[in-house]
Amino acid sequence: MNEIESHGGPAANLPEARASVQQVPDHFENPGLPEHTPRLGDVDPRADKRRERIVLALFALSTLGTIGVLVAYFALPTGKDVATIHRSNLWLGLGLAASLLGIGLAAVQWAKSIMSNEELVESRHPMESSPQVREAAVRNLAEGVKDSGISRRGLLKSAVVGSLALFPLTIAVPLIGNMGGTWDVSKLKHTMWKKGLRLTIDPNGRGIKASDVTIGSVWHVIPEGLDKTPDPLEEKAKAMVLVVRLDPRDVKSEQIPGASYEGIFAYSKVCTHVGCPVALYEQQTHHLLCPCHQSTFDVADGARVIFGPAKRPLPQLPITVDDQGYLVAKSDFTQPVGPSFWERLR
Amino acid sequence: MKSLAARRHDRRAPIVLLALALILTGGLYAVLAAPSSAQAAPVTSQADAQAGQKLFEANCATCHGMGAVGTAIAPSLVGVGAAAVDFQVGTGRMPMTMSGPQAQAKPVQFTQDQISQLAAYVAGLGPGPQIPTADMVDPSKGDPATGMAVFRTNCAMCHNAVGAGGALTQGKFAPNLWQTTPTHIYEAMLTGPQSMPVFNDANITPTEKRDVIAFLKQQGGTQPGGLDLGSLGPVSEGLWAWVVGIGLLIGAAVWIGAKSS
Known about the structure:
The structure holds 2 protein chains of 2 kinds.
Chain A: H1 2-7, H2 10-22, H3 40-43, H4 45-75, H5 82-113, H6 131-148, H7 154-166, H8 169-177, H9 186-189, E1 199-201, E2 218-223, H10 232-239, E3 241-245, E4 264-268, E5 280-282, E6 287-289, E7 296-298, E8 304-307, E9 319-321, E10 327-329
Antiparallel strand pairs in A: 1-2, 2-3, 3-4, 5-6, 6-7, 7-8, 9-10
Helix pairs in contact in A: 4-5
Chain B: H1 2-8, H2 13-31, H3 49-59, H4 61-64, H5 81-90, H6 112-123, H7 144-154, H8 156-159, E1 166-167, E2 173-174, H9 182-191, H10 206-216, H11 234-257
Antiparallel strand pairs in B: 1-2
Helix pairs in contact in B: 2-11, 3-6, 5-6, 5-9, 7-10
């Protein structure tokens, strides 16, 4: 603490510091092992006895755990109700934990507090083989190359290289070929919605009367006849739609003019980010939130993205009503639904 | 004493402290999880409307205006129906104590009679959804399997697959539904309180609403696997694994590597 005072402050200290940098030695001496300090158990037999008892207790805990598992297995059978399953799992798990943890803790405690406490240095041996072995290996390789005649027989050389280069195709082609099962991207551009197809309630398939869609309500919609298609889940994944009715005073903009019916808007439920179902609708703010990455769309503003990683608004489904007053689609979506793909061109 | 002091300055000490802090944080998180509760509601009658009007003018008119026509800070209650009043007042959400992202359930401010009177008054202002009868919300008469299908499509995205609740935007959230009474669940679907959309009887039929209640009444009980961690899915499970699980592993590694005293 007297250093700064004796040198008259940090500024005066500078030349001294520079000089000390120059004095750094080329190498440091091996500081050696720290001084050996005996453990309490090494000097005090009572402490040693106590440590042994701790290890014993841990092994006893393990034994008790094993017995506990067996007892729980036979004495606490699982019945039909969840409570008995819960009880059985709980006691089996606790017993198992005690059984295994007891052994582990006891072994570590044993090694740390009872086994010898001497610092040891294990010297590092050279890794490389002896010169004789290395020479023999190189000689063997050279002899093999000479024996194969690869330098004389040029055709064989090409055949080896060619077959080795081609082999990965047996793995790569099926792997790439099976990605997505098909390369027909036109399927991504169209859904089963078409002119006149009714909007129905997911999951029961009832038609939706426009007069039933009240302001503030939200409807999860599938196309009529979805369950009769060859692959309903594939179709649903593309065609699912969310229908809301907005107060005309709340509508800020429309994505496709004339695609809504008297304030009833139908938007694709597939997020344009990575395709999760966007379904968390806040009726007061008209915000539609994606549960996966919090992309938020403003339904009152043409399903514009107002937050999150999505880059495009949710595609709107043009709708109208049929002569019985049920909501029907005017056409398919006017753009591909869901996340971007290579050939989307937008 | 000297060896104690030396160990206190061990360079592993920060790691041990960090591990302990992480375990403590995880433990505290596991402890902090408070459900909300509410009361049931009987049917109201028109005779209560007069008393309800007095209650309304004394307790609600400041925000909702005289005659419940609404003001700049609170919506009109004409046509919201008795169901909305029974839900909002019966769960303690109204009267609000302070403005915030959303009105939260809190201890109920009125007796059941007073709630019925308020509901009768508001119901008289304009036609609106009625309070369901006990039969309409009886979980034992619903089909939980159908209820699950309806819940999964319409409710699970906000309220979580088993009704444990979940976060919305800007401090709003969908509450846990395990302690909510069947009547209040029904009324919430019918009236769409706050951020929640309306699910009218054409969208989810009264029978389906009862099925949803039957499904919800089977959730939130004893779990077969032990700790349910709030049934919040990967969020709480991840937190548990990363904070408590890895914290314990780090603690064990430090213990194994430390010299015995």
